[in-house]
Amino acid sequence: MPFRFEILARDSRTQARLGHLTTPHGEFTTPVFMPVGTQASVKTVTPEELLACHVEVVLANTYHLYLRPTHTLIRDLGGLHRFMHWERPILTDSGGFQVYSLAGLRKLTEEGVLFQSHLNGSRHMLTPEKAVEIQQMLGSDIAMVLDECVPYPATYAYALSSQELTTRWARRAKAAHRGTEQALFGIVQGGMYADLREKSAHELVELDFDGYALGGFSVGETKRLMDDLIERTAACLPEEKPRYLMGVGTPADLLRCVKLGVDMFDCVMPTRNARNGCLFTRQGKLIIKNARYAQDTRPVDAQCSCYTCQHYSRAYLRHLFVSEEILGPRLNTIHNLHYYMDVIHKIRAAIVEGQLETLQVEGIIGEHDVEEQA
Amino acid sequence: MPFRFEILARDSRTQARLGHLTTPHGEFTTPVFMPVGTQASVKTVTPEELLACHVEVVLANTYHLYLRPTHTLIRDLGGLHRFMHWERPILTDSGGFQVYSLAGLRKLTEEGVLFQSHLNGSRHMLTPEKAVEIQQMLGSDIAMVLDECVPYPATYAYALSSQELTTRWARRAKAAHRGTEQALFGIVQGGMYADLREKSAHELVELDFDGYALGGFSVGETKRLMDDLIERTAACLPEEKPRYLMGVGTPADLLRCVKLGVDMFDCVMPTRNARNGCLFTRQGKLIIKNARYAQDTRPVDAQCSCYTCQHYSRAYLRHLFVSEEILGPRLNTIHNLHYYMDVIHKIRAAIVEGQLETLQVEGIIGEHDVEEQA
């Protein structure tokens, strides 16, 4: 099936929309949250467990897969979906963000970005065309253009020059991206300058992408600034195209940004926190290693219907964590992913029912620690 | 249900038996293989996955659970079965073997063994009565008496003195083990001296245990010596009681020792090897990290019906291993456990069909490396 996005419902008091996205590997509803499967695996869990958590689409990282096992190998093995046994939609990033995060050599030119592998120091050139080529070989359903992530803070002059480079790269990516059912999203940059964000959005919209991402957020700016920039950027984007906020965020971020018109999210938070023993619950975050849970026979969250909460006590999960049993991160991941998807489902229902503005953060989202309440 | 053992069939040309064992938490057929769940978790997998691998009974380690989370906590939480969400039979060891394996303080007296925790150096006294008490609190279906594992090699004088201590301890354990449906097995010791093994067996049989284990094997002796001692010991044990060979072994060991009259086995080999990337196949052992598997689209074992072989290529499993993805050890564990249970099922079928003596090692058991054949 070719890529298609339909808006099914709108919230009358916010910018929130309920949408339906069709990709070559299936459909899903938006707003949507995409767990991160960096190296072709959402850490600790199987695709069947993702489905049981109601996950519909996952993100994989182009940078990591390009270096290992390589995009050509994955293509030869029948593509990323078959390789990782996930036959549903996959979005791949462009690899840019990871390259900029590297500590070692990294040289930016008009042509692209030269970098050294974190694995073995080998040198590679990532260009807009190369990023498209890699993602086409991976066979993801949604590909992202190569962008430059503006450091934070950055001067206006730097942010302007970077934003214009990102536009030129987006044009090259669009030209290179042909003969495929894979969708290609542009990425709005511009640092923390609202006019540059608007300029970026206008230039990308002219290039007519299948969707638009908002990149370079959650890098240290305030929530208020982030919200303001998202709102102003979203106003410049076409209503009929999906909007994807990259790398964000907490459950509360999801709710707030849906109200600003965002349709898609990804974040390592539910999975990484799970491995660190930090569990989301309707009463707040629960740090499973705390001694107070040693004899606690209750599930992590009494209102949760996930596999973990149905079968295991906090005491057992704490035991697995302190005993460094591999099953622990896995049971925690199942719970956190289920929790995130539950938040998304509550948001969707609230949009349909016109209740989004009054959707209580309490009861679905706890950013404080459970321990603080005691 | 109270503990009960019935022999359903015997092989006419070997000592092998097909049996049926009933415990408070369900029944299973023997010969049986018990995966090891040291800290109340068979590493990486859930109980549902164990069932899918046809696992019927698991072993848990008393030493580890006594120290963490403690046997009293597990009792307070409703027992080990509920704690770890495994409602099928559980066998617990006595803790003795781990204590003797400790590098630190360890002092053996007539009363018991004084040792220091590997976790925090705290001092503990393990006596035959204490080992029974701990296992009763854990609520396992089959408990083991505290024994002394004779070091290898050991002098005849040491082995004799140790064997006699083990008998005295067994008598105390039997006296302490009352008012429970839990079964209690004695453990035949005697080092590598056949007459001491026979003496040990005779003394334990007089105490009338629910079953008899053969301890202290696979410590460096030859297979030939082990087989000879097992054969001579088994001849001293009552036909109508189950026989359990502790800590053994490879698939070939299982087949050989079933022919010597052994009914029950446990070993970390399938699970530990899995985590190290060593997979059992009908063609031999497969070291998944080898570069030759990088582009190999075949499953680990084309004749295997496990979840891993049904959905993943060797190339993907190799990628998970070299990328240190947690899903790797898990998919490998599922395969190896499934493989071991398949070996057990083939052995059972061969006993029923009178084909055990001619059961080909080839086709079910490969101890060599697949790589060596190429």
Describe, in plain words, how this protein is organized in 3D.
- The structure is a homodimer of 374-residue chains.
- Chain A contains 15 helices and 16 strands.
- In chain A, α8 (194-207) packs parallel to α9 (223-234), α10 (251-259) packs parallel to α14 and α11 (269-275) packs antiparallel against α14.
- By secondary structure, chain A is α/β, with parallel strands linked by helices.
- The interface between A and B is medium-sized, with 35 and 35 residues.
Low-confidence segments of chain A:
none
Count of helical regions of chain A: 15
Task: Note the overall shape of chain A.
Answer: globular
Number of DSSP E strands of chain A? 16
The CA-CA distance between the termini of chain A, in Å, is 52 Å
Task: List the chains of the largest interface with their residue counts.
Answer: A-B, 35 and 35 residues
Describe the largest sheet of chain A: 6 strands, parallel
Biggest sheet strand line-up of chain A: 4-14-13-12-11-10
Mean pLDDT of chain A: 95
Indicate the percent of residues in helices of chain A: 25-40%
Radius of gyration of chain A: 20 Å
Name the beta content range of chain A: 15-25%
Helix-strand makeup class of chain A: alpha/beta
Note the quaternary state here.
homodimer
